[in-house]
Amino acid sequence: MDNYELLEYNLAEFMTSDMQEEFLQFFHFQNINEFKEQYVHSKKLLKDQNEEMLNELKEWRQVDSIEKFSQQVTIKLTEQYFMKYPNLIKYKNVSNNINENLCKDIHEILLRTIVYDFNLLKSQLQKLSVKSYIRNYLSNEKYVTGLFQRFPVLFNLIDKKIKETICYISEVIQHVEYDSKEINELFSIQLDQEIGVEFSSGDPHLSGKFPLVITGKKNKIIYKPRSNYNDLLFGECVALFNKNNFNKQLAQIKLLNRKTYSWSEFVVSDPCQSEEEVQDFYYKMGAIIAILFYLNASDIHLENLIASGGSPMLIDLECLFNNLDRMEALSVNDKIHEFLTNSVLNSGIVPMYNEFFKDDISALGSHENLFQRFSVPQLIVSEDDLEIKFTENSDEFKYSYSNVPMYHGQNYRFLDYKQQIYQGFTETFHLFLDKKSELIDIVERYKNDITIRHLIKPTATYSKIATLSYHPRFLTAPFDRLLFVYSQMARFGSTPFLTYEIEDILEGDIPYVFSKLNSNTLNISKKMTFTNNSRIDFLTLWKKKIHSLSEKDLNYQLNILQKSFGDKNITLEDLFIIGEKNDEIKTLESYIHSKRIVHNKQVTWLHTGYEDLTKDKDFKIRLKLQPMNNSLYNGKIGVAITYYYLWKTKNDFDYKNRFLLILNDLLDHFDLSNQKNYDIGVFSGLGGYIYLFNLIAPSLRTSKLIAIEQDILQYLGQKIKKDKILDIMSGTAGLLLLFCNIYKKSPNKELKKLIGLCVENLLNNLIESEGKGSYWESSVEKKLILGFSHGTSGILYALAIYEELFSVTKIKETIGAVTLFENQHRKNGVWFDTRGEKWIEQNTFYCNGLVGMLTHRYLMEGESPEELLYFARLKEELNKERVDSCLCHGFLGNMWLYRHFFIHHNIKSYAFLLDDWNAYLDKRTINESCLEDEFLDVGLMTGLSGVILGLLALENPNIPNILLFDL
Predict the structure, then answer these.
(1) Cystine design at 170: which of 85, 438, 484, 839 (Cβ 3.0–4.6 Å)?
(2) Exposure pattern of 73-86 as b/e (b: 16+ CB <10 Å)?
């Protein structure tokens, strides 16, 4: 592709017409023609610039592998730069270390272009083998020079990488020579001409600078291309702790500080000498977590913690005073964000999930089963082929257990030492609460020197974009690569830093946004300063936080720690109910009301979710705190429905006002244009709005509500036929069931048309299995899933309601065929859960258990003797000591369904079950300790709102059954 052909291809591939316009405006091009002129000019300019350096490739030698080709490119280009920095020549080990590491880096940059070039040649010379390509082309000086002339951006990237690295190491060696005496005295390491350098995995900033390990004959020392004032300040906080804690002393790392660079002790992971030392380690971890909370630290992941005997040692404190929220919260979600980013979760020490890793990378939560999530490029070489495959999880993360204490050859993870962590955290929190003034004095002394790093995007995001930009299609002209990087970065939205973020990525750096503690300015990579005089400085914001801290904050943070550790995992199994129903409902509603967050006429709750960890046998769940979404399932629509029926059944205007606050928030901030926030589901998405509007229609039907409803219905009409989720929870079946229930109340042509689209989409996605019936495949699990919420039973129930309404023979046949297929997954009257790798007996509950499995059978078959086996098993649940109270997978949801089928379908077997459950219910009272949990879930299907609604429904049979989308 010549001139504009590749440019046009890249524009079409990565940019919409709107984005192209934004791109031209952003970089101040008058029009596309001016951009094209500059495109050609910049390409020619770069080729001319490379010409002199290409001469270094003369006297090219034969190579026998791709790796040797990369090595020869690297060594030929490094030779001239070594001559420019003569202080490196006398350090032979350093020179060798530079070449070794550069060869690896350059090889990774070259890989894609070599593979592309080979396949391009092979398309012209079909008998070309890899061996002959290496021998006849990569060993040919003229061809190699021509290759880099065709890809001038590639050559420029390689040359720049080599030049910057050698220049940087030369600067480090100057610092070694200047500081050698003090280094020897402080760190007991002698740095002579035999020293070497080990390249770290740290990100490059500010013209390719990154931390290094300097190796002497016996010891090592860490060099950082920045000051370590942050570490010194932390050390003074540790000294304050040690001064006031005579039982446990925190160790400190030796530091030598210079204004623009620094030296740190190389900490080695050592085993503990006793189990008491292991306990001490975790007490001290609790103390460190508390200190880091006071200092608003972040980004303390597994590589930043070293277990040195009974002492946890932090080796990188670059991100102190982070996430101090300088902006006034515009939305209620901003308020929650402010809370979370100022909590113990922010430090990164406690268990968490990271966007780019499947497993936990926190300092405490990480363990041996740690895999990389992002794809790793691998060069696949065969006799006749050369390709790169990106294999996810191909390499295990290099995990050395250095952050976990070891005793007698065994790693001791925190799971058995949580009480020690809590004790250390609590005592240290109290200590600094009493010593606020001394803490502030320490920080004041460093206010002019502390640099705050602001992580405006994950560094892995930048790294991934940079790596992808090494594709050969972006290496023929500078503007091709610019266009690609812009297209990726623009997806995150425009910020004042965007130009400079792009510039850093193009230069091979990870963007570095920072500020001084006593300023109200932000800087990016020393290129630009952004000042806002209307904002107060970071130091004042931090002081405001410290002055406001109290015993209440200790309880909040300790509660988050306990949940994060899976220790205080209070669920609705702990919520024993009912004494006097009205009193219990009032108590639960008071809790929900006390936990709401209201800001600018918006309302939400801090929602507690848990991630399921299948790999880790010891640690089953991990905390995930986030603002409540708008969904019916566990979001604001569900809570609104609960308050609506509280109002209607109790005739209490406080409940009415609380309902209207949620409803108006939902209506005022509904934006269908932001389609990524919505799926079509009733429980999970837009269908929930339609259900809410129809439930409240007898009492409230405004023009605004009607307009939103019409917009949603029109949108759903376009999306139903594209839906592949299909199920009750998030897909077509849920909409079908809802639309049929609405149609029963008020038939109309438009609704019937939507019903037809739903049925058509379900039938189009039906899979026939010869002789075994039919089934639907889960779009998530990629196989048959049984059960009501996510599986075939829910879809069949929706079709059964449709058949009951319209009497369609084909639908009855379909239900029979799928029921036949379902029954092949049953043994001795019991179905098996097909979601896991191994089949296990299903539970008894509504969502994906036995009760849900029976729903469509009552409509189509009526009661059968065989079902008594199911009821006998259901009755066994009454004898369990702990049964969850929730609607989704608890006894209240089951009771609601028993009564529905007993009243509406005369299923007499449910009569005795209702009696037994009611007897069980009357014995339960609220466990008050459960309501001490700061973050108990308040959602509808697995939270307190659902408990309230379930209790109201048992008192008031006229409340529609929301589990079946009744009206």
Answers:
(1) 85
(2) bbebbbeebeeeee
